[in-house]
Amino acid sequence: QVQLVESGGGLVQAGGSLRLSCTASGDTHCISVMGWYRQAPGKEREVVVGITDGGSTYYADSVKGRFTISRDNDKNTVHLQMNSLKPEDTAVYYCNALPQYCSGPSGYWGQGTQVTVSS
After folding, report:
1. Three-class secondary structure of residue 109 per DSSP
2. Span between the terminal Cα atoms of the chain, in Å
3. Contact 98, 31 (CB under 8 A)
4. I need a labelling partner for 105 at 20 to 30 A (CA). Which of 14, 27, 41, 87 fits?
């Protein structure tokens, strides 16, 4: 089992910044990828960013150049630095972990944190 706890959401004006953090605990050795999805009202949940155990990163086109994902040395905590925020970034952001090294659930989710960007 893996538990994900995320923090850092809030309300910010357009052009501002927020930093999200997500810490994994439990069977963290199972995790191959960590990142964030987001879901805006009336839209499907979409992947935003990800980082693999080997350090490779993925960014959705909509956030390239504005968002940066990083991880602590213990690899159990990841951070999402969000700069130049836009109203369309408003969503609930869910930390996600992909446990490809173990059998069992295909993924784990954090509790979600609201990011609201005002115009």
Report:
1. strand
2. 40
3. yes
4. 41
Produce one character per residue of 18-37: b if its CB has 16 or more CB atoms within 10 Å, e if not: bebebbbeebbebbebbbbb
Residue whose structure tokens are 């504005």: 66
Alpha-carbon radius of gyration of the chain? 14
Closest Cα to residue 56, out of 74, 37, 40, 71?
71
- Amino acid identity, position 22: C
Name the band, by pLDDT with cuts 50, 70 and 90, for residue 26. very high
What is each CA distance from 9 to 18, 50, 52, 98, 105, in whole angstroms? Answer: 7, 18, 23, 22, 26
Can you tell me the mean pLDDT for 96-108? 95
Give tens-digit pLDDT for 45-97. Answer: 999 999 999 999 999 999 999 999 999 988 899 999 999 999 999 999 999 99
Evaluate whether 6 touches 115 at the Cβ level (below 8 Å).
no
